[in-house]
Amino acid sequence: MVSFKFTLAAAALSLAVNAQNTATSTADVAAAAATAKTDHSTSRVCGKAFDRIAIIWLENTDYDKAIGDPNLAWLAKKGITLTQYHATTHPSEPNYAASISGDYLGMDNDDFNFIDKNVSTVIDLLESKGISWGEYQEDMPYSGFEGFAWVNQKTGANDYVRKHNPAILYNANVNPHRLPKIKNLTMFYEDLKHERLPQWMFITPNMTSDGHDTSVTVAGKWTRDFVEPLLNDRRFMQNTLVLITFDENETYTIRNNVLAILLGDAVPKHLVGTTDDTYYSHYSEIATVEANWGLPTLGRWDVGANVFKVVAEKTGDKLRKWTGFPSFSKVFFNQSYAGPFNDERRVGYPVPNIHAKHAGRFVAPWIQRTYRGIKGTYYTTGVETRDGLKYSLPFLSKIILPFRD
Ligand SMILES: *[C@@H]1O[C@H](CO)[C@@H](O)[C@H](O)[C@H]1NC(C)=O
Ligand SMILES: *[C@@H]1O[C@H](CO)[C@@H](O)[C@H](O)[C@H]1NC(C)=O
Ligand SMILES: *[C@@H]1O[C@H](CO)[C@@H](O)[C@H](O)[C@H]1NC(C)=O
Ligand SMILES: *[C@@H]1O[C@H](CO)[C@@H](O)[C@H](O)[C@H]1NC(C)=O
Ligand SMILES: CC(=O)N[C@H]1CO[C@H](CO)[C@@H](O)[C@@H]1O
């Protein structure tokens, strides 16, 4: 009975979000694709270190295995290797979610999660300054598709999955203005050809290409095949920074350290072929974008995250070491803390730290307004974050209200 009620509630929620775009039958997808709108708008807002960023995420590979792949090693030589870049937890979906909002909200699963529209993401920050953005999800059947998955129509193999699409997880992005910017990789080539790529792009290869259902060898080859021709393409390289990284480390019992490579014509020549040992996390992806374009912050783990050094050198951001609480030796980023999307330890939505001030950046005014007067934030302005291993319920239950539904 309880589960029946839950199913109805979940169905009502998806209907409320958008009945049409979540359907996954071949006929429904064909019908929706016929009327789907694609947005190709672009902009030219200069940044302090780059004018465009392309973020490419691959799947489930430990650091050593990734750098051992000949094609990824080849790409690393073209740019800067970040040796101390960390994922936030396991499995995939919470990492993708974290990369744009500054938290994974306790998520410890790859479910059909819908994040409340009062949670802001980097997309809101970009739009507040007129900076164009777009996602390119390989083999997504049409722009703005909200379904759980889409398989290869000939072979039935896994192809596009919603859990690897950060923007679609957030209800704030499910509207007629934003859905058309959530496109597939075919549209990347269209936008490249017509010289209208957006300034912020997130690129997810399909389940074969990203290594999820295959191996790092396949992911490495796909990435080199995709990136190498772009290295000398003036339509792409326009003071562009490319980040190639992985959602999570494969081995759950070790620290979640993943390979990350920065390349592109925004990387100064003298840094090509170097390594950077600064502590970074997926939250650095947001902090770097905020620093580059002088954006406000989200008031979550983005505030204290280190900005990539190559960018920090131009923005004046100071790089910080993980020295505070909790001790680095005690965190592994391999287990989620409590939150609204945690299957076992479900508590309410965390409240942004609306008074956070760091490196001259303040929390976005609309976020301050939404959360004014609501007590109990757990975000600090340090680089130190938390994981669910030691700092779970005893730590969080003191400051967040129990989940009510
Ligand atoms: C990509 O999206 C476009 C626009 O919605 C659609 O027409 C096309 O069929 C899609 N391509 C692939 C390979 O799924
Ligand atoms: C994923 O994309 C690659 C091309 O990048 C293609 O060869 C492969 O067949 C696709 N995988 C599936 C399951 O469709
Ligand atoms: C996370 O890593 C630590 C240290 O290796 C280990 O003790 C713990 O069991 C791991 N957690 C999970 C969920 O694998
Ligand atoms: C945001 O939405 C969640 C889920 O609906 C709700 O619990 C929370 O109170 C909301 N917060 C604000 C500040 O509106
Ligand atoms: C920091 C860390 O422990 N990262 C690990 C990720 O996985 C590889 C392969 O198992 C380890 O060698 C790394 O040390």
Describe this structure in a few short sentences.
Residues 1-19 form the signal peptide. The chain has 405 residues and is α/β, with parallel strands linked by helices. Helix content is 27%, strand content 14%.
Which architecture does the CATH hierarchy give at level 2?
A: 3-Layer(aba) Sandwich
Uncertain spans, ≥5 residues at pLDDT below 50? 1-18, 400-405
Shape: globular
Q: Report the C-alpha radius of gyration, rounded.
A: 20 Å
| Domains, number | 1
CATH top level assignment:
Alpha Beta
Oligomer: single chain
Q: Tell me how many strands there are.
A: 13
CATH superfamily: Alkaline Phosphatase, subunit A
Protein name: Acid phosphatase phoa
Signal peptide: 1-19
Organism: Rhizodiscina lignyota
Keywords: Hydrolase, Signal
What does it look like?
The protein is of the alpha/beta class. The protein has a single domain, classed as 3-Layer(aba) Sandwich (Alkaline Phosphatase, subunit A), CATH 3.40.720.10. Helices cover 27% and strands 14% of the residues. It is built from 12 helices and 13 strands. The N terminus and C terminus are likely disordered. The site of one 2-acetamido-2-deoxy-beta-D-glucopyranose (NAG) has 9 residues, from loops. InterPro entries: Alkaline_phosphatase_core_sf, Phosphoesterase.
Comma- or semicolon-separated keywords:
405 residues; hydrolase; disordered C terminus; hydrolase activity, acting on ester bonds; signal; single chain; 13 strands; disordered N terminus; Acid phosphatase phoa; alpha/beta; Alkaline_phosphatase_core_sf; two-stranded antiparallel ribbon; Alkaline Phosphatase, subunit A; binds 2-acetamido-2-deoxy-beta-D-glucopyranose
